[in-house]
């Protein structure tokens, strides 16, 4: 239906309202009625828009999916529904969820239509539909566990980058690159950059067809892929590490904060001034609009400093993240020197001063209304009491489904803003550390924004929800479980909490794969394709922060004054001062403690007049009803006890509600005889550790609800039998047990008490905050890291090597992009190498059990070990700031090769002679990589992947690797490490090709009947190698492989470990089986080479399909004309000769070829073949390392020479 026809029925089209149109629910209802009328549907005009949706939603959607006459009008109905959801996002989440569910497989199609008009509405009518859509999809993903937000990114390129402000960030990074280059103008790299003009260099293979721009896609990318050598910590928490207060003069006062989180994390953050702390500082948006800075300004591409291979220098491309604070315009209009006085008065100025010389504190700004509900509602009204297993304190308002849905939306919205800010402030190498129950969903949302970031989470409170929590509050509870599993790693305070979390995951996510590493004490859980590691890390304190006050004279005097004030001027020797300090919170067990103290005084009258309970309960959250009621009840109990038992000279309870500065708190610790820390359920309760670190002669009373008690118990400090170094309360609700604990602690002689506490003191000195943070941040315990193992079976060996492929692929990607290499990559490759070395029976010889038999397989793994060592050396070189780092690494390849330099020079001269290649066709194994002991272990090293990719980028346009290996199922794509876009892959001798995810093709002449014969042959050979006599052939070399169009089985390995007699027997057996299947011999042919036997399907003409046929098929499918430009061909065996011949036939003078072989006969064949076409452009080298060295030198030459531009 044409637009003008639609217009007759609608006031305005959805998202395309005329300026000045007042959007109301009545307008939506009228438009919907018009659409229904045109769809010939009777509708009740008295109903509201949501009511009409309930009646007709399915019909409108189904009509659109039909793609019939009325589909265009139905599409307007779908857009109208979306516009209504965006107009009222807070109340339409259920309708939006219904819309997204209905779209199903049509999602991307719908978003391609809807998103552009939605974005246009924001530009023309100043709506905020884009933000509403992206958040609504994030909420949907949180609630359902799906990834619909990614569908919008796929449908609308650039939407993700716009959301994260990557252009603005890239501008800041490029500006820093320019400053860095100016500061290094005397360096070689800088001079080379000065003569080069930014622009398109060379296109790798994909560029020939798709307009691929290598500089924009494979150099330093904009935005998130900035380069900075060291790994920063991006700390994200609800509460900031400071307290802010605005004075009457208008000036802001900023003070370092206190509390458990700050005590734990501040030492980590203070190690480097580039670390960033994101937190809400209380300056939120309360309905008043503000202008956002424009991201529209863009700069031209500016390449960072590079090494001679054209790779970004990781240490040199240090980028800064700009610091942004949302403030009133008149406060930040000008912050230069002329307005310095004004800046000093502004919050921005105060924060800038705070950030100088320390880590950067950046505020996260959200809507005030959302924040109040998120913090005072869901966080503290539901999650806090639920996770402490105190359901009686869950707010009654959450019995209303509508309220909990509305509040949940606010909780998600705040987490969404924290997630966006965290991604915007991060670099690919950073570790983002999220803290506590307020921000459980941040990891899940960050996954949808950038799945490559490493995001950890630490839960500072218990995880002990009541059994009813996941059923009664499923809307929140299930997403919380899923949200925790989307972090890279999660830390709990105690084993009790982690075990409970794992149990709930097992119960509610049946498909979750749960593994436990007993040696590391780590769980890994994989759910919906994402893996998370779970560890236990009891938080501690920075001991020196407290010990520094202990010996000071002023502390000793203040301590004595406290004892005199509490106990009187002349206390008896057996008088005891009990001390407690905590927040005035119902989780802390203060009320139960007071009841226990009353009972203690009742049943032990002899202690009256002696013992005093000094309680500091820092008042907080008085605005929350349940807190205010609880606090008032406790104060009333204190008054009753003092009224009942106090005398003129003695007060049984001294109760204070103001916190103490640290020096005074240490003095109180020194003054006490017994510390009391008895929460109902709590996190680690660091105050218990502070007490004994400061005063190792004091006693300690702990409840089993304290996290520190669980840690001490597990450490053996309180045995079920034997020594007990503190007093333990198990039932807080039993005043008699409380009283007994008070009495035992009070009457224990001081010498014994000091002896017990000394053991806790020593334990705490050995387990301080440095050990805690180091343990949590240590990458070695996550699932990403390859662990050291004892290799006992073939499967152990092959799976270890495949895991190194995943690591090496990431290394290649990061080096090509100029992104620093994560620490755990080096750890993984080191562990893999060490596992191989530790498992060898003799040098370089690995003996492992074969599957399904008692056979012992023997592998020479010298190549695998040396390639891992080269990769580790490569990482060390590439992370240096020397522009010659790659040349230095290539030089290191020459070790043990006397011929290396001469042959590299000769091969480089040939490459230089050609200057540039239109096409590069090469074999892989034996040519670009030395042969391995078995194909599943034939993983391409990272250094090789980088050199080959850079050669493709700089020296050639269309590049292809053509191999006889299969494509998948332990094929070329499984063992390669080069990212997509650099090379095409031809497998099975070129009978199947992979160009890109959307471009794949095969030899179309193979019939199903022929493929079935090949399948039968493969099955027969599979049974053959299970026989004891032939079992060894299932693992040597390439083993038994099924290709497209042929089957291969290795009869010898590269080390010649199989006897000639045994190999000959296998070859005869293969010939017999082939003859039985293809009696006429018209369909299949058996071909024996030095190490493999191949059974190939013949071509339609009855010939054998070779690499020449495969290359011809590539050219036909992609319209490649080999007559254009120069061609480089590389190979190492006779199977590569047809590839060379095909190129010579097409372009005899433009072919250049390098052969990796010392075989004189093969060399003569190459010379003869080239001679037939009057071509002398050939070179022979002894090893793949020489070829890689020449490719590197050619790339360096191409990168370093000045380029001419018109």
TrEMBL record:
Residues 793-892 form the Trehalose-6-phosphate phosphatase helical bundle domain. Residues 920-1187 form the Trehalose-6-phosphate phosphatase C-terminal domain. Its EC number is 2.4.1.15. Signal peptide: none annotated. Keywords: Glycosyltransferase, Transferase. Residues 194-221 are annotated as: Disordered. The keyword Transferase applies. It catalyses: D-glucose 6-phosphate + UDP-alpha-D-glucose = alpha,alpha-trehalose 6-phosphate + UDP + H(+). One of its GO terms (biological process) is trehalose biosynthetic process. GO terms for molecular function: alpha,alpha-trehalose-phosphate synthase (UDP-forming) activity; trehalose-phosphatase activity. Catalyzes the production of trehalose from glucose-6-phosphate and UDP-alpha-D-glucose in a 2 step process. In the N-terminal section; belongs to the glycosyltransferase 20 family. This is alpha,alpha-trehalose-phosphate synthase (UDP-forming). It comes from Pristionchus mayeri.
């Amino acid at each position: 239906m044409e637009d003008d026809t639609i217009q007759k029925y609608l006031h305005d089209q959805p998202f395309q309202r005329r300026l000045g149109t007042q959007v109301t629910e009545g307008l939506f209802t009228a438009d919907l009625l018009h659409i229904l009328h045109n769809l010939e549907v009777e509708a009740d005009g008295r109903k509201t828009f949501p009511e009409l949706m309930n009646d007709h939603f399915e019909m409108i959607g189904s009509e659109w999916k039909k793609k019939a006459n009325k589909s265009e009008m139905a599409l307007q109905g779908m857009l109208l529904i979306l516009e209504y959801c965006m107009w009222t996002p807070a109340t339409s989440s259920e309708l939006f969820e219904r819309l997204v569910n209905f779209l199903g497989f049509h999602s991307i199609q719908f978003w391609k239509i809807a998103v552009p008009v939605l974005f246009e509405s924001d530009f023309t009518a100043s709506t905020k539909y884009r933000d509403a859509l992206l958040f609504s999809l994030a909420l949907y993903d949180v609630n359902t566990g799906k990834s619909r937000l990614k569908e919008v990114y796929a449908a609308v390129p650039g939407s993700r980058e716009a959301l994260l402000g990557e252009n603005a960030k890239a501008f800041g990074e490029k500006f820093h690159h320019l400053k860095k280059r100016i500061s290094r103008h005397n360096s070689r790299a800088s001079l080379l950059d000065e003569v080069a003009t930014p622009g398109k260099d060379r296109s790798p293979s994909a560029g020939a067809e798709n307009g691929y721009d290598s500089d924009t896609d494979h150099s330093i990318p904009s935005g998130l892929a900035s380069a900075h050598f060291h790994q920063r910590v991006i700390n994200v928490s609800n509460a900031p590490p400071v307290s802010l207060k605005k004075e009457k003069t208008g000036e802001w006062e900023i003070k370092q904060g206190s509390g458990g989180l700050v005590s734990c994390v501040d030492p980590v953050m203070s190690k480097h001034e580039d670390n960033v702390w994101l937190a809400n500082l209380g300056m939120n948006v309360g309905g008043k609009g503000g202008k956002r800075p424009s991201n529209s300004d863009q700069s031209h591409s500016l390449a960072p400093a590079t090494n001679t291979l054209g790779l970004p220098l990781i240490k040199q491309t240090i980028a800064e993240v700009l610091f942004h604070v949302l403030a009133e315009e008149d406060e930040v209009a000008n912050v230069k020197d002329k307005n310095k006085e004004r800046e000093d008065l502004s919050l921005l100025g105060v924060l800038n001063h705070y950030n100088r010389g320390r880590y950067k504190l950046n505020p996260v700004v959200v809507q005030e209304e959302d924040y109040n509900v998120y913090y005072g509602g869901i966080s503290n009204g539901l999650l806090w009491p639920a996770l402490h297993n105190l359901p009686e304190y869950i707010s009654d308002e959450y019995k209303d489904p509508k309220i909990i849905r509305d509040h949940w939306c606010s909780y998600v919205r705040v987490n969404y803003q924290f997630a966006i800010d965290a991604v915007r402030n991060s670099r690919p190498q950073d570790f983002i550390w999220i803290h506590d129950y307020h921000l459980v969903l941040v990891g899940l949302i960050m996954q949808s924004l950038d799945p490559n970031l490493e995001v950890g989470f630490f839960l500072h409170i218990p995880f002990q929800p009541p059994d009813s929590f996941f059923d009664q509050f499923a809307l929140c509870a299930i997403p919380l479980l899923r949200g925790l599993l989307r972090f890279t790693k999660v830390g709990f305070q105690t084993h009790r909490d982690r075990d409970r979390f794992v149990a709930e995951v097992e119960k509610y996510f049946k498909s979750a794969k749960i593994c436990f590493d007993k040696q590391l004490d780590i769980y890994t859980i994989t759910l919906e394709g994402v893996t998370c590691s779970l560890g236990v890390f009891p938080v501690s304190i920075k001991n020196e922060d407290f010990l520094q006050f202990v010996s000071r004279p002023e502390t000793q005097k203040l301590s004595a004054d406290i004892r005199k004030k509490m106990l009187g001027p002349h206390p008896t020797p057996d008088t005891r001062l009990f001390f407690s300090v905590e927040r005035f919170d119902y989780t802390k067990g203060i009320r139960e403690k007071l009841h226990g103290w009353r009972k203690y005084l009742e049943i032990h009258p002899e202690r009256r007049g002696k013992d005093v309970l000094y309680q500091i309960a820092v008042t907080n959250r008085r605005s929350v009803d349940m807190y205010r009621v609880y606090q008032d009840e406790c104060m009333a109990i204190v008054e009753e006890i003092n009224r009942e038992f106090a005398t003129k000279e003695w007060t049984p309870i001294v109760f204070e509600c103001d916190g103490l500065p640290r020096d005074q708190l240490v003095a109180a610790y020194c003054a006490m005889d017994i510390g009391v820390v008895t929460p109902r359920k709590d996190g680690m309760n660091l105050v218990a550790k502070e007490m004994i670190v400061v005063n190792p002669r004091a006693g300690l009373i702990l409840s089993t609800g304290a996290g520190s008690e669980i840690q001490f118990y597990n450490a053996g400090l309180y045995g079920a039998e034997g020594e007990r170094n503190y007093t333990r309360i198990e039932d807080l609700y039993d005043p008699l047990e409380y009283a007994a604990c008070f009495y035992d602690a009070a009457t224990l002689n001081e010498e014994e008490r000091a002896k017990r506490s000394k053991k806790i003191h020593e334990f705490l000195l050995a387990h301080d905050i440095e050990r805690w943070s180091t343990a949590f941040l240590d990458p070695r315990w996550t699932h990403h890291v390859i662990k050291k193992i004892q290799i006992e079976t073939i499967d152990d060996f092959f799976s270890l090597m495949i895991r190194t492929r995943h690591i090496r692929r990431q290394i290649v990607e990061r080096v090509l992009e100029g992104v620093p290499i994560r620490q755990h990559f080096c750890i993984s490759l080191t562990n893999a190498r060490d596992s191989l070395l530790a498992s060898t029976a003799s040098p370089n010889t690995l003996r492992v059990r074969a599957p399904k038999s008692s056979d012992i397989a023997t592998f020479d793994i010298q190549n695998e070990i040396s390639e891992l060592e080269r990769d580790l050396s490569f990482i060390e070189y590439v992370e240096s700031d020397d522009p010659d780092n790659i040349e230095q690494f290539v030089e290191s390849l020459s070790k043990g090769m006397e011929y290396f330099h001469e042959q590299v020079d000769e091969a480089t001269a040939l490459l230089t002679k050609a200057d540039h290649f239109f096409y590069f066709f090469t074999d892989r194994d034996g040519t670009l990589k030395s042969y391995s002991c078995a194909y599943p272990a034939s993983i391409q090293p990272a250094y090789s992947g980088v050199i080959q990719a850079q050669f493709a980028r700089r020296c050639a346009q269309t590049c292809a690797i053509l191999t006889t290996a299969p494509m998948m199922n332990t094929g070329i794509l499984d063992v390669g490490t080069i990212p997509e876009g650099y090379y095409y892959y031809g497998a099975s001798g070129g009978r199947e090709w992979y160009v890109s995810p959307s471009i794949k093709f095969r030899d179309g002449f193979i019939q199903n009947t022929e493929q079935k014969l090949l399948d039968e042959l493969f099955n027969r050979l599979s049974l053959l190698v299970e026989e004891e006599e032939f079992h060894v052939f299932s693992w040597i070399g390439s083993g038994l492989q099924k290709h497209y169009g042929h089957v291969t089985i290795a009869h010898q390995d590269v080390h010649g470990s199989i006897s000639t007699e045994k190999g000959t027997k296998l070859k005869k057996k293969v010939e017999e089986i082939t003859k039985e299947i293809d009696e006429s011999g018209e369909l299949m042919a058996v071909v024996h080479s030095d190490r493999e036997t191949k059974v190939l399907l013949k071509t339609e003409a009855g010939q054998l399909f070779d690499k020449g046929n495969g290359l011809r098929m590539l050219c036909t499918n992609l319209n490649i004309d080999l007559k254009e430009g120069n061609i480089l061909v590389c190979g190492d065996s006779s199977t590569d000769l047809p590839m060379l011949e095909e190129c010579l036939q097409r372009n005899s003078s433009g072919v250049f070829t390098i052969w990796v072989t010392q075989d004189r006969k093969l060399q003569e064949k190459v010379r003869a073949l080239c001679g037939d076409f009057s071509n002398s452009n050939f070179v022979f080298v002894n090893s793949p390392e020489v070829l890689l060295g020449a490719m590197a030198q050619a790339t360096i030459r191409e990168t370093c020479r000045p380029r001419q531009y018109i």
